[in-house]
Amino acid sequence: MAELELLHRIKNEASKRRKTIVLPESHDERVIFAAEKLTSEKIASVILLGDEGKVREDAKKAGCNLSGIRIIDHVKSDKFSDLANIYYNLRKKKGITIEEARETLKRDLFYGAMLVREGMADGFVAGSTASTGDVLRAAIQCVGMPDGISIVSSFFLMVFPDKVYGFSDCAVVPDPDASQLADIAETTADNYRTLTGEEPHVAMLSFSTKGSASHPLIDKVIEATKLAKAKRPDLKIDGEMQFDAAIVDSIGRKKSPGSDVAGRANVLIFPDLNAGNIGYKIAQRLGNAEAVGPVVQGLKKPLFDLSRGCSVEDIVNTSAIAALMAK
Fold it and tell me: What's the whole-model pTM score?
């Protein structure tokens, strides 16, 4: 499945769902053009945040049609006080005052995240101008993680001509412990199925396959595999496993006979960020794979971060993924 075919599938499936995505950074021309494209191609409904007069003036100057797009001046919104009070109640145990809550909700990232929390939007895509830290801070504070998931992480879809792999975590968590690694495996498997339509076969990667070496680093992967299998017996998960044993059938049968993952893995869980980040870049630069992502996961609802160097198409693609992953 080539990248264009995968993205076409994601957009097509998203368009059937007609979810609403909030794009907070309307001061960025790329965001305005992405909103236009999402709307005209009927991928998702869009909410832009900002002063409506200025947003429409900027769009006119850019030659962008905002017909059918909802614009909310969040500071003047009739929902502002209610959302600020809800945010205050979420954070008052952390010592925040109602005045501080109101100041925080004046920030477009936090207001957008609260719209998603309260079901006024289905997903959120930001980061074209904001830092990753700011985007994730708003997401975690406003939406949080579902029960049973201990970590916010990320995954890439690595698209080769004949196959799509899920790689995780390659962008967020530097050194997950065994429990966190198990949660990363679970969420990546579920999201891989949602986005590709394929059954996940999850390999917990290491420099050992089934006891071929011994080291505390391997012990973490072994423990994570046990935890993931116990928590999600419905998923095909196996490890610890070397990369070649995970993806090459003949090697998998030799190194891990009887495994329903070895040699056929399509979801690869790296033991730490060193391995994951290096691994996806090798696949991208030497293997000529197309990298779709990173996609943030582990939150109750899809709130996604962009690279500040993103293109209009990147924003559209990420919004389509958010729309497809929305419950």
Answer: 0.88
